[in-house]
């Protein structure tokens, strides 16, 4: 791209023109500089841009019919820079005096997000890109921790107002994002890098123009807006974690592909076609045993070849390798500009980022405890020491185009791509009661790849009919996938052969009788495709009287299709002899000591050689071979179609009272069909009527009082309604689906007081109450012959809470401290969900006293505290900020009727970010995250010393350098 020197010899003035009372954009307003006879009109977003303004100081006049003219003096324009001025006009035709203000009054610390929050029809909170940068976070999930009433579960999934991902909805630019996890409802927020975010808004009360399937709230991630002028940013970063980087003994997957560094598998871990082609030969243990015997015979070359091919198709190493872990690295680049195409403005925005991170946990603890039938008594089943490593690569890109085909009509195209690849290696060793040995251990290697590709085509149109008609539409196609190719898992048991006073000396074996499927190779693939379309029409009926009305109506269509497959291949350890010939070429597990890699080597698999028996016959000897334990029940397809229509109205009774009412109708058709044709297809077919009512009382220019009611719903995911059963871990329960699940209906009540003392400042207090009918809970059932975790409907549940939020600068002490800003939000949340009748009855039958019949929602903390302190030393271009987060004990998962539930323990988090600008283009940033390095701990309720998991992540120190134009 060639840029002439003339571009940098001039500047620009841009901003928005809005109605001060309603906050709505003004279309067709004019901003004019009379001294140089240059001006511009505001577009359908209410935005204007005056280009080619020579450097200097000017007076800007802004006007629109029916509004008081405003004159802004002292507007400074610099070469090659854009001066931003956002203007709010007052409706007062009886007062014709010009309002005169200084540009410095407009360019104070006001944030557009708080202004949007104050003027919104529904209760909402959010975080802007400038605040995100201060927090020192790298993706949308980490950003959500600092939103009022929000928490993040497993580093990915949103929990709003104590409600898990089932009750929260994630959208990008108004289009719903699908989940990349078959066990979850909401999208993985860690897939969205902050470099591509403009702001994140959480809507907490329902209006009819929103999807009905959010209860805790809806998160809308707005990607980078179109540029007002040319810009370019380039940045590089590196970081060091005290636990993970510059380690010479960093364990990782023994398999290595050429594209691992990018987070992609190059086919190294792909499932071989031969495993499907010869499935009938290895479909079960008896088939494999028969095939093994037949393969040994001289005249059965075909069977022998098949067993050899299938065994060697699973040739990736089970054993880990050790590497030296380098520093974490990252790079990002973005560029954008606005051009004239056929005399009309065309905006282009492009962004790219890539980072690679190493994570290591050493000395972690994991444990499994079970109830003994006596109250408050847990018996240890498993206590292991854990080492776990992860190498994560994240690649993301964003391209957006917008073309203004006419002054009041714009078409936009956006595509965002994100890919995250994690290579995880885990080693555990210690005690497991079931094994009956002195030592028990496991090792696993897996790669998980998550991909999200989101394409959107949208339009905004304004017609000068009545008092203005807005027509907005958006169509989207979303592709998301989860791939886990060739995860390898094995367990071992050790018997100590040493005497009482001697160093321990183990002989090893595989505990096949306790864990029949291990060693095993596991493949999992999920693909979701989703098509969305929605259209909204808004008609304003403005009036000079005290009563004003605007109406909005529209519809939405969404269709999601899913394909899910799982394959499990279990290694078979062959007998020591066959056909009267000893299999001396075969290394048994107990022959290799701690060098497990020798046993799993390709030299110990498939056809090993040939020998002659006593009858002079050739006997072909085999090594490790595999049995296909895949179940058709665990492969399914699903489909979800949602059609919605709505109508709503905004009624203003004078300047002080506003009422927003509406009705949304949603039709749901949802089903999951197993590959096992013996099982019936699961279906949900419902039509729901979802009313909403919001009121806003404007106490004065700076205070609002809001009240709201809305009915929403929550649907089970396809995995939950599918007839699917899977063992979720060694010594743990089976995860099962439930085709009889019903959707949940929720009645929501909200009350909120807002005070905006000064631009950029906020004090808000909220209260809410939610009642659930037929809520879905995950519970553990023991009356099925096996231990089974299954989603079920219980009768009802309630959630209620209080939220407080404050943002204040210290300019009231002295003007020099205006850029010292403190912000905090605190939430107190209470919830009760009915427990399954089977659990309650089991406790009563065991003689427990004070049997509880309710429990909190999963992932819900009784309190969440966020706080941030930042100072922007503008003269030195130096900004510093601290961010703090703390949450209360929250339910991690339900264990069973006679065993205490597992809770994640409270943990404070503190981050620090400092950035220093050098001139107009260069910036250096320093970050310290997880400074306190507190223990991540999950333990059993009322037994805090009995850990389900316990480890430290370490503190990370980062250094970044960026260059911008």
Automatic annotation (TrEMBL):
Entry superkingdom: Bacteria
Predominant place of localization: membrane
**Domain (TonB-dependent receptor plug): residue spans on this chain:** 125-214
Which keywords does UniProt give here? Cell outer membrane, Membrane, TonB box
The compartments listed are: Cell outer membrane
GO cellular component terms?
Answer: cell outer membrane
Q: Pfam family of this protein, just one?
A: CarbopepD_reg_2
Q: What InterPro entries does this protein map onto?
A: Beta-barrel_TonB, Beta-barrel_TonB_sf, CarboxyPept-like_regulatory, Plug_dom, Plug_dom_sf
Domain TonB-dependent receptor-like beta-barrel, which positions?
A: 487-893
Please state which protein family the record places this protein in: Belongs to the TonB-dependent receptor family.
What protein name is recorded for this chain? Answer: Outer membrane protein
**What organism is this sequence from?**
Fulvitalea axinellae
């Amino acid at each position: 791209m060639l840029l002439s020197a003339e571009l940098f010899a001039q500047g620009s003035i841009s901003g928005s023109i809005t109605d001060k009372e309603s906050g709505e954009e003004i279309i067709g307003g004019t901003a004019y500089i009379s001294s140089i006879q240059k001006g511009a009109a505001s577009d359908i977003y209410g935005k204007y841009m005056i280009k080619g303004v020579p450097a200097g100081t000017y007076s800007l006049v802004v006007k629109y019919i029916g509004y008081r003219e405003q004159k802004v003096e002292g507007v400074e324009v610099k070469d090659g820079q854009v001066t931003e001025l956002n203007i709010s006009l007052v409706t007062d035709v009886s007062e014709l005096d010009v309002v005169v203000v200084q540009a410095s009054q407009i360019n104070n610390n006001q944030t557009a997000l708080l202004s949007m929050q104050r003027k919104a029809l529904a209760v909402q909170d959010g975080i802007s890109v400038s605040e995100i940068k201060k927090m020192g976070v790298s993706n949308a999930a980490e950003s959500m921790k600092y939103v009022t009433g929000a928490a993040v579960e497993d580093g990915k999934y949103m929990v709003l107002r104590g409600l898990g991902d089932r009750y929260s909805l994630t959208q990008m630019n108004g289009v719903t994002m699908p989940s990349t996890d078959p066990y979850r409802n909401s999208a993985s927020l860690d897939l969205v890098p902050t470099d591509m975010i403009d702001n994140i808004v959480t809507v907490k009360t329902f209006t009819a123009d929103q999807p009905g399937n959010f209860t805790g709230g809806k998160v809308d991630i707005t990607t980078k807006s179109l540029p007002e002028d040319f810009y370019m940013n380039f940045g590089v970063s590196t970081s060091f974690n005290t636990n993970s980087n510059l380690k010479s003994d960093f364990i990782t997957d023994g398999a290595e592909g050429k594209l691992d560094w990018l987070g992609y598998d190059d086919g190294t871990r792909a499932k071989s076609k031969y495993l499907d082609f010869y499935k009938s030969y290895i479909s079960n243990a008896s088939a494999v045993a028969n095939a093994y015997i037949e393969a040994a015979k001289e005249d059965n070359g075909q069977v022998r070849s098949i067993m050899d091919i299938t065994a060697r198709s699973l040739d990736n190493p089970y054993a880990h390798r050790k590497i030296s872990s380098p520093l974490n690295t990252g790079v990002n680049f973005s560029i954008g500009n606005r051009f004239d195409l056929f005399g009309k403005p065309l905006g282009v925005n492009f962004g790219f980022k890539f980072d690679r991170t190493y994570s290591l946990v050493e000395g972690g603890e994991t444990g499994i405890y079970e109830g003994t039938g006596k109250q408050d008594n847990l018996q240890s089943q498993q206590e292991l020491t854990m080492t776990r490593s992860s190498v994560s690569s994240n690649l993301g890109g964003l391209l957006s185009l917008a073309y203004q085909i006419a002054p009041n009509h714009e078409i936009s195209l956006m595509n965002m791509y994100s890919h995250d690849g994690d290579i995880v290696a885990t080693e555990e060793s210690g005690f497991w009661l079931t094994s009956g040995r002195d030592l028990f251990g496991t090792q696993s290697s897996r790669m998980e790849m998550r991909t999200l590709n989101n394409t959107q085509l949208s339009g905004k149109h304004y017609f000068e009919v009545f008092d203005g008609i807005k027509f907005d539409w958006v169509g989207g196609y979303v592709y998301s996938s989860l791939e886990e190719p060739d995860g390898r898992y094995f367990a071992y048991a050790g018997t100590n052969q040493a005497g009482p006073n001697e160093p321990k000396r183990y002989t090893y074996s595989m505990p096949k009788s306790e864990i029949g499927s291990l060693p095993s190779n596991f493949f999992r693939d999920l693909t979701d495709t989703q098509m969305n379309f929605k259209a909204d029409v808004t008609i304003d009926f403005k009036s000079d009287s005290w009563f004003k009305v605007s109406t909005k109506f529209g519809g939405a269509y969404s269709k999601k299709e899913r394909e899910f497959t799982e394959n499990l291949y279990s290694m078979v350890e062959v007998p020591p002899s066959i056909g009267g010939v000893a299999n001396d070429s075969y290394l048994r597990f107990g022959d290799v000591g701690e060098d497990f890699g020798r046993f799993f080597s390709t030299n110990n698999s498939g056809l090993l050689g040939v020998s002659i028996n006593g009858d002079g016959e050739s006997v072909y000897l085999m090594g490790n071979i595999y049995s296909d334990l895949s179940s058709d029940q665990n492969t399914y397809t699903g489909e979800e179609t949602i059609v919605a229509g709505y109508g709503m109205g905004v009624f203003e009774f004078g300047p002080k009272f506003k009422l927003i009412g509406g009705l949304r109708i949603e039709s749901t058709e949802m089903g999951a069909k197993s590959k096992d044709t013996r099982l019936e297809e699961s279906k949900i077919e419902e039509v729901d009527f979802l009313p909403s009512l919001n009121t806003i009382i404007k106490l004065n220019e700076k205070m609002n009082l809001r009240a709201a009611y809305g009915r929403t719903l929550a649907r089970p995911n396809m995995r939950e309604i599918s007839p699917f059963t899977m063992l979720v871990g060694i010594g743990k329960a089976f995860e099962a689906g439930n085709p009889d699940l019903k959707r949940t209906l929720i009645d929501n009540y909200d009350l909120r007081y807002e005070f905006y003392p000064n631009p950029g400042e906020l004090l808000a207090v909220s209260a809410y109450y939610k009642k659930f009918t037929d809520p879905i809970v995950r519970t553990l059932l023991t009356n099925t012959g096996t231990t089974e975790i299954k989603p079920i409907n219980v009768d009802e549940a309630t959630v209620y809470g209080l939220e407080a939020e404050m943002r204040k600068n210290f300019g009231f002490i002295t003007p020099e401290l205006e850029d010292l800003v403190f912000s905090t939000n605190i939430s107190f949340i209470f919830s009760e969900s009915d427990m399954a009748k089977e659990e309650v009855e089991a406790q009563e039958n065991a003689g427990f006293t004070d049997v509880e019949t309710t429990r909190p929602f999963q992932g819900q903390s009784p309190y969440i505290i966020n706080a941030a302190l930042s100072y922007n030393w503008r003269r030195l271009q130096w900004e510093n900020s601290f961010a703090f987060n703390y949450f209360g004990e929250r339910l991690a998962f339900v264990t069973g009727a006679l065993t205490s539930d597992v809770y994640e323990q409270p943990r404070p988090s503190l981050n620090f970010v400092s950035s220093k600008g050098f001139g107009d283009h260069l910036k250096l940033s320093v970050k310290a995250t997880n400074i306190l390095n507190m223990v991540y701990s999950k333990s059993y309720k009322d037994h805090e010393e009995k850990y389900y998991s316990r480890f430290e992540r370490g503190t990370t120190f980062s250094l970044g350098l960026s260059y911008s134009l």
